[in-house]
What does this fold into?
Amino acid sequence: MEEDLKQRALRVAHAIASEMIDQGAQAVYLTGSWARGDAHRESDLDIRAVGPQRDKHLFRRDGFLVSSEWQPKEQQLEALEDARKVGSVVPGWRSAVLLQDPDGVAAAIKKEAENWTWDRVENELDEVVSDELAHYSEEVHSLYTNLELELSLGAAVQRGMVASKLAPIVALHERILYETEKELWDLVADKMGPGWEKVQERALGLEGDFATGCKATFELFQMTVDHVGRTGDEAADEVIAHAYELAAKGMSQLG
It folds into this structure.
């Protein structure tokens, strides 16, 4: 990253942070690629405020796209206890740059993130993995049905949805933290091995035609189920098992 570009980005971030403090924020911090130092010149400035409001804004300022969001302190702390969110929230806080923090509110939350361990959400992890896998089992149904009915557009949407949501499930099962979804796919592939990586690439459309991508998506779903195993929830297991069977049929029909 060009040093002058980075300095300009930080100046803009600090200026916006001062405005947010004037509007009632308790603290303001920068997260994302500009905080980590690996931003592209078109990367957005992710500016977050600890404050009473609950809103988001997207705007341009001095040549930068800015994504600003307000959340109360309690909600930001709760995210560190939510198994569905911790994968990205914890590393996001760990790399955060504190822009305005007059009372040390953001520093306290950052310290919580730095001391965070998976033990804090261990009791709910299996249930969340089960819920997520069962939820995307429904999307496997839709993918299979759309292919049967030759509804290519609908199948394309479902393929993308299923293929993009399986890696986060594996990441949660494997207790993988990721600062950005851009690295999520590689981290999961490194954990799962070259077989997963190749199937994931086909499912996401990097190799082969449309039918190849759909077949790979069914296979990736089966690989996820095989890796995660039974959830212990009878209803969820039944849903997942039938989707697994549909995936096998879909793969067979696609050749």
In short: The mean pLDDT is 94. The first strand starts at residue 27 and ends at 31.
